[in-house]
Write a structure and sequence with these properties.
alpha+beta; Gyrase A, domain 2; Multidrug efflux transporter AcrB transmembrane fold; 3 domains; 7-stranded mixed β-sheet; 4-stranded antiparallel β-sheet; 17 helices; 20% strand
C-alpha cells in the first residue's frame, strides 16, 4: 500500500508542477496570480515559432571577397603609417587587386629598407612584379585569405546575433548554413523593413578628413536633390584628385521635410575606424534633436586625441557605410575619448544607429538570397488548424480506446490526458519554441501514448485467458510489456535526438516535442495507469476486469 501511495503522490506532484509551469502560457491567468505565486511560477511560457506567430525568414550571404579587400585596405593604411614613422619616402602604396599591394618609390636604394618592413607583415609575401626596379609587390598569403573568409562568416554571425538581441526579438534563430550563408528567423516582428535594414547595414564607421584644398577646385554644388548622386559623381570623375573621393551627407529641410544631399570631397585615407568604440548611446541636444554619443576605448581615445590635435580648424567627416553623417570643424584637441554623431535623423533612426555601432560593424556586406515574411494572420490560421487536428486525433483515439477496451480504455485515456498536460508543462518550463512541425510531434505523441497501453492491455488479456486472477494478470501484463515498450521508445528517442542535433529550425521543433513526448509517455504508461489499476485492486476485490 505504501508503494502505491508514494507513486500516487509522485503522479500528483508531476501533474501540479506541469500545470504551474504551463500557467505563463496564458497571460490573463498569469497576471491574475498573487505576487508570491508569481515569484515561484516561471515568468515565460511556450514561445511560438515563426510559422505560428508570423515574422521574417531570411537567408543571407557574406561577400567573402569584399572581406579580404577590406582587410588588405587596412594593411595599406598600416604600411603608409609605418613608412611615415620610419621616414621612408614612398610615392604611393596601393591595392592593385583583391590580395595584392604595390609600393612605388623613386630611389632604388630604398628597396632594401622597404623589404625589411615585410617582417612586420607576416601575412604577406613578396612576389615578382612586371614593373621597374622602383616597385615592390606584396601578395596576401592563401592561408591568410582563407582565414579572413572563414572569420568573416563567424564575425557576421556574432554581429547579427548582437544586433538582434538589442533589437529585442524573442526566440530568434541565427545560424550558419553551408560555407558562407546565414539563416535568420525573427518570430513576431511587426516592422520587417526596419529589422532587415538593421541586419543588413554594414555599419563600417570611419573618420576621414575633408580635402578642403581641392574642394573649391572641383566646383561641387552646395546641395543637390535626392537621387542625383550618380550624376554628380560622373561630372567630378575627370577632375577628382588622386587619394580623394566624393561622399554625400543626407539632410532634410525643416520646413518641407524634403530630403537633399550635400556633396563633400573627402580624403580616402581612414584616420580612425569604429572598431575602437566601446559604447554608443542616444542623447538629446539643446534643440530637442537626437544625436549619438560615442565613447572610444583607451587606444581609440588616445588616437582620437592625437588626430584632433594635429587637425585643429580642419573639418573631419564622420562616415558610416560611405554616407557622411556630419562633418564638423575641429575647434580644439578633443580628449576624454568621447565624440558625437549628429545628423537629421529621427529618434528611432538614432536608436538603430546606436545599436549597430554597439554591436560592431559587419566584416563585409551581406546579400539577401531568400526573403520571406510570414503574416500573423497566416500564423493564427496555422494554430487553429493544428489545434483542430490535435483535437480530432485525440477524440478518435479516445473513442476507439473506450469502445475497444471499455473501462481499461478509460484508464488509458486518463494517461493520455496526463501525457499532454505534462508535455505542455515541460515545453513551458524549458521555454521551448512551438512550431507547426512541433504540433505534428504532439499528435504523434498521442498515437505513441495509446500504443504503449495497447501493448500492456493485450498482455493482460493473454494472462486473463490463461486463467490468472485479475491482480496477477495486471502485474504480469505490465512486466511482460515493459521491455517491448522501453525498446520501442528508446529507438524512437535516438531518432528524435539525431533530428534535434543535425536538423534545422522546423525539424528541431518536431524533435523537441517528440523527445519530450516519448520520455513523458514512458512515465504515464508504466506508472500512471499502473497506479490506477493497483488502487482498484486494493480497494475492491475485482474478479472480472473490463478489458
Amino acid at each position: 500500500m505504501k508503494k502505491v501511495r508514494a507513486r500516487l503522490l509522485l503522479l500528483l506532484l508531476v501533474l501540479l508542477i506541469s500545470i504551474v509551469c504551463f500557467l505563463p502560457s496564458f497571460p490573463h491567468l498569469y497576471l491574475a496570480l498573487p505576487t508570491w505565486m508569481k515569484s515561484i511560477v516561471p515568468n515565460k511560457g511556450i514561445a511560438l515559432g515563426l510559422d505560428l506567430q508570423g515574422g521574417i525568414h531570411m537567408v543571407l550571404e557574406v561577400d567573402e571577397d569584399r572581406a579580404v579587400e577590406i582587410a588588405v585596405d587596412r594593411s595599406v593604411v598600416a604600411i603608409q603609417d609605418l613608412l611615415v614613422e620610419k621616414k621612408i619616402p614612398a610615392e604611393s602604396v596601393k591595392r592593385t587587386s583583391p590580395t595584392r599591394i604595390v609600393i612605388q618609390f623613386q630611389n632604388a636604394d630604398l628597396k632594401a629598407q622597404i623589404q625589411k618592413l615585410l617582417d612586420e607583415f607576416p601575412t604577406f609575401t613578396e612576389v615578382d612584379s612586371a614593373g621597374s626596379g622602383n616597385t615592390i609587390a606584396w601578395e596576401l598569403r592563401e592561408t591568410e585569405s582563407k582565414r579572413i573568409k572563414d572569420s568573416a562568416i563567424n564575425q557576421a554571425l556574432e554581429t547579427i546575433r548582437n544586433r538582434i538581441d538589442q533589437f529585442g526579438v524573442a526566440e530568434p534563430l541565427v545560424q550558419r548554413q553551408g560555407l558562407k550563408q546565414i539563416v535568420v528567423q525573427l518570430p513576431g516582428v511587426r516592422d520587417p523593413k526596419r529589422a532587415k535594414d538593421l541586419i543588413k547595414e554594414t555599419a563600417l564607421l570611419e573618420f576621414k578628413m575633408l580635402d578642403e584644398d581641392n574642394q573649391m577646385k572641383l566646383d561641387l554644388p552646395s546641395r543637390i536633390p535626392k537621387d542625383r548622386e550618380a550624376e554628380v559623381l560622373k561630372q567630378a570623375e575627370a577632375k577628382l584628385p588622386e587619394g580623394s573621393q566624393v561622399l554625400f551627407e543626407r539632410a532634410v529641410e525643416r520646413d518641407t521635410g524634403r530630403e537633399y544631399r550635400i556633396p563633400y570631397l573627402v580624403k580616402k585615407r581612414v584616420m580612425l575606424t569604429g572598431d575602437v568604440l566601446s559604447d554608443a548611446r542616444v542623447s538629446i541636444g539643446q534643440f530637442n534633436d537626437p544625436y549619438v554619443s560615442i565613447t572610444f576605448d583607451a587606444k581609440g581615445g588616445r588616437e582620437f586625441e592625437r588626430i584632433t590635435g594635429e587637425n585643429v580648424k580642419k573639418r573631419m567627416a564622420i562616415v558610416l557605410d560611405n554616407t557622411i553623417y556630419s562633418a564638423p570643424v575641429i575647434q580644439e584637441r578633443i580628449s576624454g575619448g568621447r565624440a558625437q554623431i549628429t545628423g537629421t535623423f529621427s529618434t528611432q533612426e538614432a536608436n538603430d544607429l546606436a545599436i549597430v555601432l554597439r554591436a560592431g560593424a559587419l566584416p563585409a556586406p551581406l546579400k539577401i538570397i531568400q526573403d520571406l515574411t510570414v503574416g500573423p494572420s497566416l500564423g493564427k490560421d496555422s494554430i487553429e488548424k493544428g489545434v483542430r487536428a490535435t483535437l480530432i486525433a485525440g477524440a478518435v483515439v479516445i473513442g476507439f480506446m473506450v469502445v475497444y477496451y471499455r473501462l481499461s480504455g478509460v484508464i488509458a485515456n486518463f494517461a493520455l490526458v496526463l501525457n499532454l498536460i505534462c508535455l505542455m508543462g515541460a515545453l513551458s518550463a524549458l521555454n521551448a519554441t512551438l512550431t507547426l512541425p512541433g504540433i505534428a510531434g504532439i499528435v504523434l505523441t498521442i498515437g505513441m501514448g495509446v500504443d504503449s497501453n495497447v501493448l500492456i492491455f493485450e498482455r493482460i488479456r493473454e494472462e486473463l485467458r490463461a486463467g490468472k486472477a485479475v491482480r496477477l494478470a495486471v502485474d504480469g501484463g505490465y512486466d511482460k510489456a515493459l521491455l517491448t515498450i522501453v525498446d520501442s521508445h528508446v529507438t524512437t528517442l535516438i531518432t528524435g535526438v539525431a533530428l534535434f542535433l543535425f536538423g534545422t529550425g522546423p525539424i528541431k521543433g518536431f524533435a523537441v516535442t517528440l523527445c519530450l513526448g516519448i520520455a513523458i509517455n514512458l512515465f504515464t504508461a508504466l506508472v500512471g495507469t499502473k497506479v490506477i489499476f493497483d488502487i482498484i485492486n486494493q480497494r475492491h476485490k475485482v474478479e472480472q476486469l473490463s478489458i
